[in-house]
Write a structure and sequence with these properties.
The protein has two domains: about 120 residues, no CATH class; about 240 residues, no CATH class. Helices cover about 70% and strands about 0% of the residues. The chain has 14 helices and no strands. It is mainly α. The longest helix is centred in the last third of the chain and has 31 residues. Bound molecules: zinc ion. Zinc ion (ZN) binds next to loops.
């Protein structure tokens, strides 16, 4: 636990770097840590997570510039999360069928902690800049897709329980994921070829033009419903191919039998496609809400950053968790929104932090939530 605390603090230190540099468009590797005021490199003994801030009293040793205590707090918070999730998963048995830590359980823990770190990073950036950089979300998505192909081999024999802890597809879900994934690819190709237009393309072009000329961006009326139609068109191939692949690959014929045997025998396929399905449902639920909400209110509802974030959550946890988290998040956000309306008289709040908080809550309370849902929808899993 001491080791995990120190590891968490060091990871938190790295997250500080990401939160500070990524929105500014700087490299997260070079140059090494330096004072943002006098540019002097920070020596290793002044770069010790949590402690350094206190013995330097929050100042640069070279020029005395003040560092925010936020850096130390993020390090401490990350360290506590590392220890608490470990305790919850491996001592309290919050997640089943979790293998022992020393028996590959650590690999599942590592994936879940990577996701939590991404959620924390997204929260800190979103709260300050009102954006969630795609590179942050995609880090988790790639980790999720990669680990999901390996995870099935860490678990015991009972494959029907796998979905409770890792993304895992049955033949039908796998077919939908494959079709949907190819559909997503076709959508991207259609965009590249210019056969469909990117939403808000005109606004972005104007923004760029104004930036180059150095003039202020003029008021521009965006036909929000047309933009949403473009996004819906981008998603259409995914839905069509997803349904088509279910029809073709899961029929009562030799093709269906072949697909069935592939998914049951090749565990890595079931894991990988389960992760891909989670990616698409996690993102799809938010995206569908964005399109329907924007069309209904004539105003952009939810950002594409939120779509990518929940897609990433789905690729690590499977399709159930982001779906539940999405419906839980408003309750977390509501209290804050009311407070914000009273104090700052602001109607909008960034949504990423609430999605992140809800996701972590669902990760920890997954068992009781599933027991509760099972009463209503038996069983909450696509065969
Ligand atoms: Zn300095």
């Amino acid at each position: 636990m001491v080791f995990l605390f120190c590891l968490g603090a060091s990871v938190g230190s790295f997250l500080n770097v990401v939160v500070y540099r990524v929105p500014a468009g700087l490299s997260i590797v070079r140059p090494g840590s330096h004072c943002f005021s006098c540019q002097a490199p920070i020596r290793w003994y002044d770069n010790i997570p949590i402690l350094a801030w206190f013995y330097l009293r929050g100042r640069c040793r070279n020029c005395g510039a003040k560092f925010s205590i936020r850096y130390a707090l993020v390090e401490l918070f990350t360290a506590i999360l590392f220890v608490m999730v470990y305790k919850g998963y491996f001592y309290l048995g919050l997640r089943e069928p979790m293998p022992a830590f020393t028996h590959w359980g650590w690999l599942i823990y590592a994936g879940h902690m990577a996701l939590i770190c991404v959620l924390l990073t997204a929260t800190l950036i979103d709260a300050e800049h009102w954006i969630i950089p795609l590179s942050v979300s995609y880090t988790a998505a790639i980790i999720g897709l990669g680990l999901s192909a390996v995870w099935p081999y860490c678990l015991g024999e009972h494959t029907q329980n796998y979905w409770r802890i890792i993304p895992y597809a049955g033949p039908k879900m796998a077919a939908a994921a494959l079709g949907g994934g190819l559909g997503l690819l076709s959508g991207l190709i259609l965009l590249k070829l210019g056969l469909i237009k990117r939403s808000f393309a005109e606004v972005e072009a104007l923004e760029k033009e104004c930036e180059q000329k150095g003039v202020e961006m003029p008021e521009m009326k965006v036909p929000i419903r047309r933009e949403m139609l473009r996004e819906a068109m981008f998603l259409t191939p995914s839905v069509v191919l997803g349904v088509l692949f279910i029809k073709i690959l899961t029929g009562e014929n030799s093709v269906g039998q072949w697909w069935n045997s592939v998914i049951i025998q090749q565990k890595w396929c079931a894991g990988l496609l389960g992760s891909l399905f989670g990616f698409m449902i996690g993102g799809g639920v938010v995206w569908a809400t964005r399109i329907l909400g924007s069309v209904a209110f004539g105003k952009e509802a939810m950002g594409l950053g939120d779509v990518h974030l929940m897609a990433a959550v789905g690729s690590v946890l499977g399709w159930v968790s982001p779906t539940v988290a999405f419906f839980v998040a408003p309750f977390f956000g509501l209290g804050w929104a009311l407070l914000s309306l009273v104090i700052h008289r602001r109607r909008e709040i960034p949504y990423g932090p609430w999605l992140s908080l809800a996701t972590v809550a669902v990760m920890i309370l997954f068992e009781p939530i599933m027991d509760y849902l099972e009463v209503f929808f038996i069983p909450p899993v696509i065969p």
